[in-house]
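Exercise 7 asks you to align residues with tokens for two separate proteins.
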Amino acid sequence: MASQWGRIDDDGTVYVKTSDGERVVGSWQAGDPDAGLAYYERRYADLATEIELLESRLASGAGDAKATWNQAGALQDSLADASVVGDLAALDTRLRALREAAEAKMAEQVRAREQARTEAIEAKERLVGEAEQIAESSTSWKASGDRMRAIVDEWKQIKGIDRKTDEALWKRYAAARDAFGRRRGTHFAQLDTERTAAKSAKEALVRRAEELSTSQDWRDTAAAMKDLMTEWKAAPRASRADEDALWTRFRAAQDAFFAARSAAFAERDAGEVANLKAKEEIVTEAESLDLSDPRRAQLLLREITGRYDKAGRVPRESVRRLEDRMRAAEQRVRNAVDTQWQQSNRASNPFLAELQARLTEAEAKLERARASGDAARIAKAEAEVAQRRSLIPS
């Protein structure tokens, strides 16, 4: 019994046809030769199916290239002794191609691993560079510290680097982390020193403010308090807790002084309002003097003037108005006295009449000077009036 790829001779020996001739692959003694050839052909089909499965898994990526290469080689080696009937040369060609494909896939995988390794190294080098930059110049201490810790978490997620390279990169990162820690420690140590000095300076300002808080020298102390506030703003800050506590004391001292000053000014203002009312009544009294007896009016005016002077301070805006009214009332009485004197003495003493006329003229000049507000002019006019009066006997 014979077929395209094999035969069974009369004694049951099974042959397969190869490029080198026939080769014995087995024996069939069980009966029908056709059944025997079919059996060995099925074994060939099983072998072809196994090869096809390897080809499919490699092409899909499900099969490991190295394992496929080894398995294809083992199958290729087994073809010389395989107990099958079929086109062994075709299987050998397929297996050779499969091994070449597996080799290409292995080379691709090597390149991919190298690429992944390169990318992993670059990723860790970027992390190291970032850490070194932070260590060299960053002053955002909290954010930078958080970033340093986050770099470690990112570092652990990067795989595929050989141990030697990974350890070298880690040493660079660790050195950067330590350098950052030292620089941060130095910064905060210096900050503590500065804050201690700031605390001492502001404690001195607080003590000065507290000493001044009970002063009643309102003007000078108010200026001193403002100067202290300027110094406070210019001084460096202490720690938050110290700064808040010292500010509370400093502000309390300032508030105590200015509250006392406000109360004193309010009391003074109330007193000045009362004084104003009293002086207005006194001025009204002076303005209402009866001039029918000028000498008596002059005596009453002296008493009224004494009470006016003792009545105390009045609001500044009312001083000029009251003074003007009081001077006008005084002048009214002087004019009445002068008129009476002139009437009684002019006829009998022409010299005195002339002196009185000059006095009246000097007093008119004084009123004009006072109306001008010129201090030098007023002083000169007052001196002239005094000199004129001194010449007239009482």
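Second protein for Exercise 7:
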Amino acid sequence: MTIDPCEHEWVKQRTRERVHADLVRLSGAKLDLAPLTEEAGRLIEQAIPFEGGCWHTMDPATLIETSVRTVNLPPHEERITEYEYLHRDYNKFVQLARSPRHSGVLSEATAGDLHRSARYREFIQPAGLLGELRTSFVVDGTCWGSSAFFRAAPTDFTTEERDFAHDLAATLGRSFRTALIHAASTPTAALFGPGLILLDDGCHVESFTEPARSWLAELGFTGEPNQESLPHALLAVAQRARAAAADAVARVPGASGHWIVLHASAASGTQSGRVAVILQSATPASIAPLIAAAYGLTKRERELTELILQGHVTGDIAARLLLSPHTVQEHLKSIFTKTGVRSRRELVGTVFMRHYQPRLQSTGTEPARII
């Protein structure tokens, strides 16, 4: 029986429309990351079949990967983060996040010569795979996650599938944004002091402090730091610091709900390539921009929110930002709508207390007084 090409294309288009609609509904379900990626992968596979894949969360400010989940692939290892951050290649997630089109097919980027890609030579081809489709999940100008899907030879991804992946980027960005904020909205555990991990040039642990073990547990690590592969977020921030020859920072929601800051710096000494990573509780100042971005606030609305959290009244805010009091009130209405509150006090209770107050109580610091 001969299949009509036009009818076949119509079926594929209807499938994409249905999958897109289902993913939009999924973005409003406020799922945790594990069930979110499982259900999103099941839906996407109906329109873009794949043999294996991986999902990443990302720090939206630094575009450093903060977690990874794999599907039908070997576990991530140190060398994968090394190649993502230290080696030049095609369709890096950071590149896609900053490009007008947020998805890319590796064979297209390499002009059909896949061996030009170090990632293909070292990881994709040895795994018996051919096609790679990458997408960065950008919504409101901010990237919250990414995915990479793979196909076995001889089938590759098409430009139509690439464009459909781009169409899904904003929807998946909203889903990942919600999942990350939901994961860190109800802290439960007591905090502990900063921890330090010293890594050699191969990202293997040379030494670590005892508090670092507790922070690693917050990142889901249960083994011995000097014997097993470290959490993806720690490896990623270390490799970014090594690649940039500068400090690198990533903010990650921990298992208990606390935000964790990972700060990596090149370590001095006789051996080159060593990196020191400090793990500690995030301060309100370091998390405020991330929370504001999660609610989709504009740059001006973020400035207003930070001033409100500091206790400033309308007149003060207007003078500081060179706005009229009426304009300040209009911005406040927009902020209230986006965050789902009706007053400044409720805004502080939703945006501030929920995410910051448990940390302030643990350090003895008092929040700003709201007038």
